[in-house]
């Protein structure tokens, strides 16, 4: 569908901080179904295809637990290739005794759960884009109950959850921010996203290429919420994949026009949204 490939700008990778790397690795391998791509004493890159990483874990020095009422990660969202995959992981999580929430968002069907540190994970499947309801530039989304009976009809006899499928993507990220006006300016004028849904005065959903959203932002932790300490559990950064070097240069120029700087260190381009959420820009 092209929502997570060039020429769309999309979230390609998320890096989260955890309190105990060994404990988190056990969870992300046994419960979520990732494999290890690369590992050091304090960091691990996780993969589903054995070649690329869409999620990394790191244990900061002097790490402290996740801080409440701050900006940062609300959830990261893993997009599965097939509805059968979502049905299979429902059975898998139930058999493992893992508590999870669920929702039908009209554009997608989703499960929600938390890792051992309280980082929230969404696991979802998109409905066919032909079923999405657009009113001009706005896509209809809701928080309706998920029809598990219908979902589980997609289980293929004999099929079992065998870990995250090879085609799993980082579908989107949803962030806590301290306010929405400057945030909208940053993501729209600076990074080139379109607002595709407004949830009152509390949340925005943004995308490129007419996806339902690559990025969500909300003020549910309070307007003026502070940035969490650097050594706390939560999000370290997320990576935006842009189409080409020309798009990178244009984005840097647009960010500078609104007073936002981009720094380069060891070939990595980094910027921060108005709430201090760290973003890496890559091709």
TrEMBL record:
Keywords per UniProt: Metal-binding
Residues of the VOC domain: 10-126, 169-283
Pfam families attached to this UniProt entry: Glyoxalase
Keyword Hydrolase recorded: no
Protein name: VOC family protein
Domain of life from the UniProt record: Bacteria
CDD domains listed in its UniProt record: VOC_BsCatE_like_C (cd16359), VOC_BsCatE_like_N (cd07255)
SUPFAM superfamilies found in the cross-reference section: Glyoxalase/Bleomycin resistance protein/Dihydroxybiphenyl dioxygenase (SSF54593)
Originating species: Virgibacillus tibetensis
């Amino acid at each position: 569908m092209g929502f997570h490939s060039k020429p769309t700008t999309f979230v390609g990778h998320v890096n989260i901080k955890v309190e105990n790397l060994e404990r988190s690795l056990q969870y992300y391998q046994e419960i979520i179904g990732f494999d290890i791509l690369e590992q050091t004493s304090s960091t691990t890159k996780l993969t589903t295809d054995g070649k690329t990483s869409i999620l990394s874990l790191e244990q900061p020095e002097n790490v402290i637990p996740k801080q409440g009422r701050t900006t940062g990660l609300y959830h990261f969202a893993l997009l599965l290739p097939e509805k059968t995959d979502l049905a299979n992981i429902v059975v898998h999580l139930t058999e493992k005794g893992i508590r999870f929430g669920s929702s039908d968002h009209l554009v997608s069907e989703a499960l929600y759960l938390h890792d051992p540190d309280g980082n929230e994970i969404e696991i979802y499947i998109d409905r066919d884009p032909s079923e999405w309801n657009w009113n001009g530039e706005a896509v209809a989304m809701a928080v309706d109950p998920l029809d598990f009976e219908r979902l589980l009809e997609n289980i293929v006899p004999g099929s079992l959850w065998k870990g995250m499928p090879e085609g799993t993507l980082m579908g989107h990220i949803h962030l806590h921010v301290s306010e929405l006006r400057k945030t909208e300016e940053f993501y729209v004028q600076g990074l080139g996203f379109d607002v595709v849904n407004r949830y009152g005065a509390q949340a925005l959903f943004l995308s490129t290429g007419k996806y339902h959203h690559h990025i969500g932002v909300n003020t549910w932790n309070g307007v003026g919420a502070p940035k969490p300490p650097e050594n706390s559990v939560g999000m370290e950064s997320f990576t935006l994949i842009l189409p080409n070097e020309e798009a990178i240069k244009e984005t840097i120029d647009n960010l500078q026009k609104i007073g936002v700087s981009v720094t380069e260190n060891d070939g990595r381009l980094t910027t921060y949204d108005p709430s201090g959420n760290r973003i890496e820009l890559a091709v």
